[in-house]
């Protein structure tokens, strides 16, 4: 089977062309940036073992397994991260949260990323604010293994800690940032995300349980003038702003992602003590 025939077979399984190309490059042991190589060599014959690997990958992708789990890699905010089924696949939408955080973070700031997963947010912040003290927290020891391995591979000095949200935290942070679970437990869309860890997706009957917990805990751990920034669902911005305002946060606002969806909300803590 040629490269062109292999890609046609993937299309027949229902795979998008980009997914099919990236999986074929992975099966061939080539970099994901070499899509042009596939076009230039589309009459090349695949070795039987490469063809078998590719077929298995395509079948898994057609079954709904995320592309990032199949290739083991995901790009986020210019960083190449290792990912697997222990962590949620980083989404481009979350880059909105990082961009907002970088506007706030001073060069020597102290920041904590709650529910760090693969470490995507914490590592992106450390990359762009190398003088900041960045801490990353997750309740899952397995997720922290992935995040710590990414930090080592990228040579980024982030402090990792296992905890539930802000439990056990002692510093007064200049910024608390989080992309917590925010999908309602009964949301039918969860079925399409069955390959990813449920604990990183669902948060109670209305999807706001973890956001409520973080908003309630944050004031005790923020320095005066510190910020709390949260990612949330497409229809949760009003509720998130309400929780922040009711707790005493000021300058409460929401940012939209590239699709125009209200993706993140945050506020500034002005109280002393």
Would you write up a description of this structure?
With 273 residues, the protein is of the alpha/beta class. It has 2 domains: 3-63, no CATH class; 82-269, Vaccinia Virus protein VP39 (Rossmann fold, 3-Layer(aba) Sandwich), CATH 3.40.50.150. It contains 10 helices and 9 strands. The chain has helices spanning 3-12, 17-27, 35-40, 48-62, 67-71, 95-104, 120-128, 141-154, 209-217, 237-247, and strands at 73-76, 79-82, 110-114, 133-138, 159-162, 173-178, 222-231, 250-256, 262-269. A 7-stranded mixed β-sheet has the order 5-4-3-6-7-9-8, sandwiched between helices. The protein has a two-stranded antiparallel ribbon with strand order 1-2. Strand 3 (110-114), helix 7 and strand 4 (133-138) form a beta-alpha-beta unit. Helix 1 (3-12) packs across helix 2 (17-27), helix 2 runs antiparallel to helix 4 and helix 9 packs parallel to helix 10. The longest helix is centred in the first third of the chain and has 15 residues, at 48-62. The termini are far apart. The model has no long low-confidence stretch (mean pLDDT 92).
Provide a short characterization of the protein structure.
The chain has 273 residues and is α/β, with parallel strands linked by helices.
**Cα-atom Rg, whole angstroms?**
21 Å
Please write the string of helix (H) and strand (E) elements.
Answer: HHHHHEEHEHEHEEHEHEE
Q: What is the CATH class designation of the largest domain?
A: Alpha Beta
What share of the residues lie within helices?
25-40%
Strand order of the largest sheet: 5-4-3-6-7-9-8
Based on Cα principal axes, name the global outline.
elongated
Give the structural class. alpha/beta
Strand percentage, roughly?
15-25%
pLDDT below 50 for ≥5 consecutive residues: which ranges?
A: none
Q: Helix segment count?
A: 10
In CATH, the architecture of the largest domain is 3-Layer(aba) Sandwich
Sketch the major β-sheet. Answer: 7 strands, mixed
Mean pLDDT metric: 92
Number of strand elements: 9
What name is given to the CATH topology of the largest domain? Rossmann fold
Give the domain tally.
2
CATH homology-level superfamily of the largest domain: Vaccinia Virus protein VP39
Distance, first to last CA: 69 Å
């Amino acid at each position: 089977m040629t490269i062109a025939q292999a890609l046609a077979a993937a299309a027949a399984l229902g795979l998008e062309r980009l997914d099919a190309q990236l999986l074929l490059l992975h099966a061939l042991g080539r970099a994901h940036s070499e899509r042009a190589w596939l076009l230039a060599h589309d009459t090349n014959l695949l070795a039987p073992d490469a063809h078998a690997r590719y077929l298995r990958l395509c079948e898994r992708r057609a079954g709904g397994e995320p592309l990032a789990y199949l290739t083991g890699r995901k790009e986020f905010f210019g960083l190449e991260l290792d990912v697997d089924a222990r962590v949620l696949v980083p989404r481009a939408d979350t880059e909105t949260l990082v961009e907002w955080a970088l506007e706030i973070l001073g060069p020597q700031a102290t920041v904590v990323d709650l529910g760090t997963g693969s470490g995507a947010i914490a590592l992106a912040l450390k990359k762009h604010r190398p003088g900041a003290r960045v801490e990353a927290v997750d309740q899952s020891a397995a997720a922290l293994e992935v995040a710590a391995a990414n930090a080592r591979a990228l040579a980024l000095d982030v402090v990792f800690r296992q905890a539930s949200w802000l439990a056990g935290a002692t510093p007064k942070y200049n910024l608390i940032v989080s992309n917590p679970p925010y999908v309602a437990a009964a949301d039918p869309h969860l079925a399409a995300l069955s390959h990813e860890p449920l604990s990183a997706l669902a948060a109670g009957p209305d999807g706001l349980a973890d956001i409520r917990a973080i908003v309630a805990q944050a004031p005790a751990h923020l320095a005066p003038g510190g910020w709390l920034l949260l990612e949330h669902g497409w229809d949760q911005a009003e509720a998130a702003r309400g929780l922040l305002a009711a707790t005493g946060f000021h300058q409460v606002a929401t940012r939209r992602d590239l699709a125009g969806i209200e993706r993140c909300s945050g506020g500034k803590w002005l109280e002393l003590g």
